[in-house]
Task: structure prediction
Amino acid sequence: MASMNFEDPEVAKFLDQTYQLLKEDALQKGTDREYPVMNFKHPNELKSLLDLDITAGPATYEQLLEEMKRMIQYSPKPGHPHYHDPFYGSLDAYSQAGSWLSSSLNVNLHTFEISPVFIVLEKYIFKKLCDLVGFQHGDGMFCPGGTNCNFFGLHLARFKKFPEVKKTGMFSLPTLRCYISEDGHHSLLKAVNYLGFGGNSVVPVSTDDRGRMLVSDLESSITSDIEKGYMPLMVMATCGSTVLGSFDDLTAISKVCKTYNIWLHADANWGGGVAASKQHRHLLKGSHLCDSLTWNLHQLNGLPEQCSVFLINDPTGNALEEANSARAEYLFQPDKHYDISYDSGDKTVQCGRKSDVVKLWMQWRALGDSGIEARIDQAFENARYLTEKLRTNEGFKLVLPEFECTNVCFWYIPHRLRGQLEDNKWWQEIGKIAPKIKERMTRTGSLLIQYQPMSNKGFVNFFRAIIHNPLCRPRDMDFIVEEIERLGHDL
Amino acid sequence: MASMNFEDPEVAKFLDQTYQLLKEDALQKGTDREYPVMNFKHPNELKSLLDLDITAGPATYEQLLEEMKRMIQYSPKPGHPHYHDPFYGSLDAYSQAGSWLSSSLNVNLHTFEISPVFIVLEKYIFKKLCDLVGFQHGDGMFCPGGTNCNFFGLHLARFKKFPEVKKTGMFSLPTLRCYISEDGHHSLLKAVNYLGFGGNSVVPVSTDDRGRMLVSDLESSITSDIEKGYMPLMVMATCGSTVLGSFDDLTAISKVCKTYNIWLHADANWGGGVAASKQHRHLLKGSHLCDSLTWNLHQLNGLPEQCSVFLINDPTGNALEEANSARAEYLFQPDKHYDISYDSGDKTVQCGRKSDVVKLWMQWRALGDSGIEARIDQAFENARYLTEKLRTNEGFKLVLPEFECTNVCFWYIPHRLRGQLEDNKWWQEIGKIAPKIKERMTRTGSLLIQYQPMSNKGFVNFFRAIIHNPLCRPRDMDFIVEEIERLGHDL
Result:
């Protein structure tokens, strides 16, 4: 075997069998309620179940297929209607087709010549997404994940304030400060570490009881920092926080930012999807006032990982190019025979950049604006249904009176703890419940939901169901409640 | 349409047809000499040929298939045996299977629970690759592209020298310096910009006539910088330079680095693949002396974009975790029921991280060590054949007497310029030839080779054939020579 020729009948047969396996085991069974959402094995068990050795020499086609089958068997199924764990997941035929197309064409987006179709697609998509968030002078860039998009926000904020950084670095800059709600994503901590600001430059701002940044506290932190001689550079507002799903008030934050000449970057990685829904886009109100915004389309919009876009509201039209260009003479020759403004590679920090746009384009083309809107609205509808169900069940306690974005957060109260005084001791007991149920859930493979504590609000371990799978129906919401009750009633 | 259910017969049929289209048009025809390597259209032509609008509402399956067909038609074919343009390319059924598997499973590698199989695979692969480059205490991380891997080298160099940077940033650091050969990749410029060092921190070191860093010049730059009060932080050695394919002398550079306590990072993004070949691994001699090394497996090893690994020679065993962790309590709960040392997500800067490991594992498992070695050796054999062919043809002039890595660099001399005095005027004329041939080549769609000047060596525009496709045979090398002669003889 080991033929590299796609015309070889044996190779073609292997591909055909691979396709059948993926369709049946990963896509069909992986989204079918009759099959488990996961089949957990501990690391050492897993190592003995897989045949990892790649050294031995050519494998047969049967061995390769067998191994892929096992990998599917022991991997969780993020497209399953009982998978409500992290923010990504969901599978559909259209974005899968786009993803496979991207892999089969294997083009790199640095110059127009070698990636004409996807560069044209990107320009089109950036315009579309900028329109949705209200960026009049919008430009965009796909980055490898939402965290990297947030890095870009900080990078652009720094460059626009201190363009000389590109040459002279941060060695002689004033000490800079960035502001984020205490419920904001940890990617800002990663960003300040990576980009050379250090963790001390992050100022966490308190949140209200729904997890939204307290804008009065933001302003007092800023004025206090200025008095101390620090320079405020950026506010990272959160649109759909990681745990509670909260949306900061962009209009109020923008007003503060304008007063103090601070870059406003919106982390809409999770919540950005609401921009496509007439019913829910009010949650992003004020997005047009931001300087930049990031949106993970592999989250609420359900694209396969990764599909993350950084958008910038840039009246100059060349901020990305100016901030990032290195003008390598071996890539961006000036004497090319076509319009080199389409050589978009120097607008980013990557050199090789795989195509993430085509899966997004395919899904949107398949569903249309109305279909994209319907899937967002349906996710909210499911979250609402689940919330009401939990509210009226004595075995559950909601963390917030209402859900935010489509995060539904709750404690399970086992029978022995119901109807008791909710004192510290009681809460300590409750904090031990979620990890125990989670362990049983994982062994059973029936359901996937994350739990976590939330120290800044004094919340002990609670479950957080993230609802976005378009396959979910009310009965899947019912299943969450029933299954947790089944797994935990004796605890 | 617009069903999200994979059991829906219409959806299953659409997937079947998508698969057939990808197999036939992208993979089979895309690697078949009977079909063109590209079908170039200028941006505005392309926009009118594609039906970009995604707003209008649900598309029919026929429309989606039609549009994918067109995207394939107007995209270049990097797996084609006449495609010798950039460093990536090549297609094989095994890594495509792995890539599609990765997309269909759509798991994210932050915690073991949601990505058990691929985390186990990664650990196995890091060990394998570290063994090949001689890292005794090796650890690794997949990063989104080789440029990002180089960022990691700089990031780790900074962290290991100044761990306090993670908290306090670079504001009060001494002015740092990084060294790279003047033939090194522009990603170091991108890195110092992004990570806050600034472009002035990059010191280009001269190269010899084969494009290798002059180690004596490196040392004198370092001592001169120290005298000026700068602090040398990192040398980025190049293993397979972008234009000429040169390999720096890692052993000699390492000696200098040890003397001055400087981090040695090897950019083996292009040349790393030689580590798998007994015949060619001498080019990486001294790799075990480096502190870190990056290797783009989507280049010489021919995996689909992206497959980039950062390797670190780390006796402490926890440098990646220490440099990058943010310990988000909503991801890395300490009270989990399994061995949380497998939660590898906090070892990197990404939060969502797609799986790049499985396509690598699949290809290597399919071919075995011997098959991987054979493909590397064959690429060198093809480069050797082409070089000899060009050497003996009066219409061509080699840029270097021998090829480096598998970069074959040459000028084409049209008839009217043969046998003349090679003065400045003659060279000026030669510099205009490659862009003209390139334009014709692109219109014809028969061949894809890049050209560029090389200012630091005074070379006017020349062609650079990058040879790595395992489908290439001597007749494809013959074709390069014949086709350029055909396209350029009258110029």
About this structure: The longest helix of chain B spans residues 357-391. The mean pLDDT of chain B is 96.
